[in-house]
Structure formats: structure tokens, C-alpha cells
Amino acid sequence: MKPVVLRTERLELSIPIEADIEAVFEACQDPAIIRYTTVPSPYERRHAEEFVVRVTTNWAEDTEQTWAIRDGDVLAGMIGLYRQGAGSAELGYWIAPASRERGFGTEASRAVIDWAFSPDGLDLHRIEWRAVVGNVGSARIARALGFHYEGTLRQALRNGSGVRDDGWIAGLLATDDRLPQEWPVLG
Ligand SMILES: CC(C)(COP(=O)(O)OP(=O)(O)OC[C@H]1O[C@@H](n2cnc3c(N)ncnc32)[C@H](O)[C@@H]1OP(=O)(O)O)[C@@H](O)C(=O)NCCC(=O)NCCS
Asked: What is the atom index within ligand 1 of the atom nearest the CA of 106?
């Protein structure tokens, strides 16, 4: 499909382009992004260049949708829908260090979820969220969005440095009320 632009109160979400390469490269030097996502490590400029090309292909082939999260001219982060199949997809994101703790992760996720469940989007039945056990910031986003905590997956995650971790898993159904849930691991 053609890349879709999503707008929220403060943000615009659109396909990452060549002009974003430098900002993606810089953000992906951040230790938390390296620790908690699957970006390659060490993250080189060529990884950002390849990423932008791959994202375009994935939109065209309907395999994955990735958006740059834009706060005006600033690249605030990246978000997308991955591991798609059987009416389900996994939500993944990172927010650049300078744009954190302003609710951008939550705001961008809400827009992507709305689109993913909509008949004009992917018309999904379920959206999954996974994170390394202890990634409290990401878990607070998922909880606020109405995801239900579903458990721990032993040694299920491997980051871009090859480190294996237990993972928290949560799910959101199209029919869920999207209200913040009790998460036993967040207290
Ligand atoms: C986790 C991450 C996406 C949070 O993005 P963000 O835009 O700062 O998140 P928000 O501002 O929407 O915050 C959501 C909630 O989490 C809290 N929070 C954010 N970062 C936190 C942290 N490091 N530790 C504890 N709580 C945190 C916020 O205070 C807020 O809490 P509230 O709902 O009680 O108000 C960002 O820190 C990041 O990109 N981390 C590295 C990559 C990563 O972990 N990606 C997710 C992989 S599953």
C-alpha cells in the first residue's frame, strides 16, 4: 500500500525518508534503544541508510508499516507494526532521548493502534506488545493504552547485540475498551 500519514494533537507520523538518516543514526547510538530494541549494534550510518530503503519496500509489499514520529522538524522517534499474520501484528517503537517523557510514545502509539484496528487500515483483530523484562517505560505506555498483561516469555527476546532476555507480553484486542489495566509486574 501507499504510505499513510497519521496526525495527532502534537505529532505527525509519516514514512522515514533519506533526510532522516542522520537523526536515525544519532538516536540509535542511545544505550536504551540498543538494549531494548533489535537495532544492530554497533549502529553504523549504513544501518540507517538500509533501514530507510527497507521501510519503503515493506510499505509497498504490505509486510510492515513504519512511521517516523515528527514533532515539527524534529525526528522524535520511530514506530511500526511488525510480525504480521492471522489478523495480528506487534507494535514496536523507540523515542529519541531528547524527546522522551513528554507522552510522545503513548500519543504516537494510540494513533497507530487506531489505524491498525480500523477497516481502512489493517483491520486487525489483535495487537501484541513485547518488551524486555524490566523495561518499565515501555510497559507504562502499553498499560496506559489498554493492553492486557499476558505473562512472561522465557528467553524469547534477542536484541541487536545478540543478548537474550525474558520478555513481557501483552495484548490488545479490537474489542477491548482501551482503558488502563492492572499490570501485576508494574505494581
Ligand atoms: C520506552 C520509551 C519508548 C518511552 O517513551 P516516552 O515517549 O518517553 O514515553 P511517554 O512519555 O509516553 O511515557 C509513558 C509513561 O512511561 C513513563 N516512563 C517513560 N520512560 C520511563 C522510564 N525510563 N522509566 C520509568 N517510567 C518511564 C512516563 O513517565 C509515563 O508514565 P505515566 O503513564 O505514568 O505518565 C523510550 O524511553 C524509549 O524509546 N526507550 C528505548 C527504546 C525502547 O525501550 N523501546 C520499546 C521497546 S518494547
From this structure: 12
